[in-house]
Specification:
5 strands, alpha+beta, elongated, 2 domains, Alpha-Beta Plaits, 5 helices, five-stranded mixed sheet, single chain
Length: 193
């Protein structure tokens, strides 16, 4: 105990005698105090953020609880699902999917009097992150008369099943059309991969 008291007396006498040491000690004390205030501010900010997240979650839960009957929401969601499902094509195999897309394209093109029409299969692949959904493409190469290309696009846009135009090239010099169309199919088993 006497050694500790003697060390404290030496430190006090050094601080009293040396101005630089006193200033340095006050600077260190200020830095430690400032750091403590910053750490406490971070803790308060983290607690506030956690409280705000909890309050937002609670408010969302209250809004959901206040919404109509869950059975009504489920029925509306099922109706939307049926409407979306009606837009997808159905086939049992990849080959049948390609054939039905080509047949649908021929039905669309035949009344528009395209010349030297050639329809070929394109990429057939499963859609990433959507199990059971396949993208089937077909390429159409044909000669066209002026105005027929717009009628074709209108027919594709109003088709009861969803058709997506991936590419449309029109060569006006020799009136050639190159069209790549995709359709999305369900019902193809994973063994078709």
């Amino acid at each position: 105990m006497n050694g500790l008291k003697a060390a404290w007396q030496r430190v006090r006498s050094e601080l009293a005698a040396n101005l630089r040491l006193r200033l340095g000690a006050w600077a260190v004390a200020f830095i430690v105090l400032f750091y403590t205030v910053l750490v406490q501010g971070d803790r308060v900010a983290a607690a506030y953020d956690e409280y705000a997240d909890g309050a937002d979650r609670f408010a969302r839960a209250e809004r959901l609880r206040g919404q109509g009957e869950w059975s009504e929401l489920l029925a509306a969601e099922q109706e939307r699902n049926e409407q979306l499902s009606a837009l997808f094509w159905e086939a049992e195999t990849q080959g049948l999917a390609e054939a039905s897309l080509q047949a649908a394209l021929q039905e669309l093109l035949r009344p528009l009097e395209f010349r030297n029409m050639r329809i070929q299969s394109g990429v057939s692949q499963p859609v990433l992150d959507v199990p059971g959904l396949w993208q089937i493409q077909a390429q159409v190469n044909a000669g066209y008369r002026q105005g027929a290309e717009l009628q074709l696009l209108h027919k594709i846009a109003t088709h009861p099943r969803k058709l997506v135009v991936n590419r449309l090239d029109l060569v006006p010099q020799n009136r050639r059309l190159l069209l790549i169309v995709s359709a999305y199919f369900t019902g193809i088993p994973p063994a078709s991969e």
